[in-house]
Design goal:
The structure is a single chain. By secondary structure, this protein is of the alpha/beta class. It has two domains: 6-242, Rossmann fold (3-Layer(aba) Sandwich), CATH 3.40.50.300; 252-341, Hypothetical Protein Yjia, Chain: A,domain 2 (2-Layer Sandwich). Helices cover 32% and strands 24% of the residues. It has helices at residues 19-28, 47-53, 77-89, 108-114, 118-121, 135-139, 147-156, 165-176, 190-203, 220-223, 265-279, 334-342; strands spanning 6-13, 35-40, 65-68, 97-101, 124-134, 179-183, 210-212, 252-259, 283-289, 295-302, 305-313, 322-329. A hairpin with a 2-residue loop joins strand 10 (295-302) and strand 11 (305-313). Helix 11 runs antiparallel to helix 12 (334-342). The radius of gyration is 20 Å and the shape is globular. The protein starts with 5 loop residues before the first strand and ends with a helix.
């Protein structure tokens, strides 16, 4: 039996930044590695896991793609994380490398601390933490209105928390990262891309690489095989929640909306755009049955930017049921959002 630790890459990033797209790209370009994927999502419906299973192959078979839904992985270490990793390592052909795609609302630091567990520490190591960011959103200052002003306020009064909940999530993800991916770089011009890069640099406590990419297409040699052993330098990754015994996600709310069977693709897209614009929905994703179409429609919305594509035919053994997972800040109006999507 090999005593070499199996490397684990943690892929974090805000809602809709392109984490699943990056994982899918790495699955398609494993460079000889036998991969396993662990996907953690909020809500009962694992959309990202389904997307990745559609890309399964000999290097990463479908049964090596594990979904953990309806909970935060970093909050359920003993119940979910340790048994899942143990099962992957016990496979007849264990993976050479494990990718963990965290929920968009997850804080990476508690997950990093899980690697200190005695049952895991001798068997796996954090090869690197990759933070995926949406270049357009960061350039527009979605997570903090004025980063310089907030930095000044912190210096003047460290007892007051001036961050919005979204800002804290973003900053903690950057603080833990070994590499930051500025995804969707094609959606911004050179000046806005530079602004996004400056915003990331302002939040990073260390000098780390920032890579501009389109559609998650990055050379695997850049993000795999880093050898960071991040579990050994947690003090170099300071976050807002270091002094907290635990954390929660009460600032956010997840809804699962069932759509009518007569939905059209145009109506679904328009509805997602409307709930983002009028109700502050951060993320919407799911599968929709479209009248007269044998294939299911994969819908992914990030704010008011919506992408939709037919990904595969509905199987004979699955119900043609349309669900969208909708994520927003606490207090979003379920009834109003449902009314818009029901059309």
């Amino acid at each position: 039996m090999s005593i070499e630790k199996i490397p684990v890459t943690i892929i974090t990033g805000f809602l809709g930044s392109g984490k699943t797209t990056l994982v899918r790209h790495l699955m398609q370009n494993p460079q000889g590695r036998r991969l396993a994927i662990l996907v953690n999502e909020f809500g009962d419906i694992g959309v990202d896991g389904e997307i990745l299973k559609g890309c399964a192959d000999a290097n990463c078979p479908e049964d090596a793609i594990v979904e953990l839904t309806n909970g935060c992985l970093c909050c359920t270490v003993a119940d979910d994380f340790v048994p899942t990793i143990t099962a992957l390592l016990a496979r007849p052909n264990p993976p050479d490398h494990i990718l963990i795609e965290t929920s968009g609302l997850a804080l990476p630091k508690p997950l990093l601390k899980a690697f200190e567990w005695p049952d895991l520490r001798s068997r796996i190591t954090v090869d690197g933490v990759i933070a995926v960011t949406d270049a357009e959103a960061v350039a527009d200052g979605r997570f903090a209105h004025d980063l310089a002003a907030i930095a000044r306020q912190r210096q003047e009064d460290t007892s007051v928390d001036h961050d919005t909940p979204l800002g804290e999530v973003f900053e903690d993800q950057i603080a833990c990262a070994d590499i930051v991916i500025l995804n969707k770089a094609d959606l911004v011009d050179a000046a806005r891309l530079a602004a996004a890069r400056e915003a990331v640099q302002a939040e990073s406590p260390r000098n780390i690489p920032i890579v501009d990419v389109i559609e998650g297409r990055v050379d695997p040699r850049i993000v795999l095989g880093i050898g960071a052993a991040a579990e050994d330098d947690l003090d170099q990754r300071p976050t807002h929640h270091d002094s907290h015994d635990a954390h929660d996600h009460d600032d956010f709310e997840t809804l699962v909306i069932t759509l009518p069977s007569h939905a059209s693709a145009e109506a679904v897209i328009a509805g997602v755009e409307t709930i983002a614009r009028e109700h502050g929905v951060l993320r919407a994703k799911g599968y929709v049955a479209i009248s007269g179409k044998p294939m299911r429609l994969l819908v992914q919305g990030v704010g008011s930017r919506v992408r939709a594509q037919f990904d595969r035919p509905w199987r004979a053994d699955e119900p043609r049921t349309s669900h969208l997972v909708v994520i927003g800040e606490r207090g979003i109006d379920r009834d109003a959002i449902t009314a818009v999507l029901a059309g």
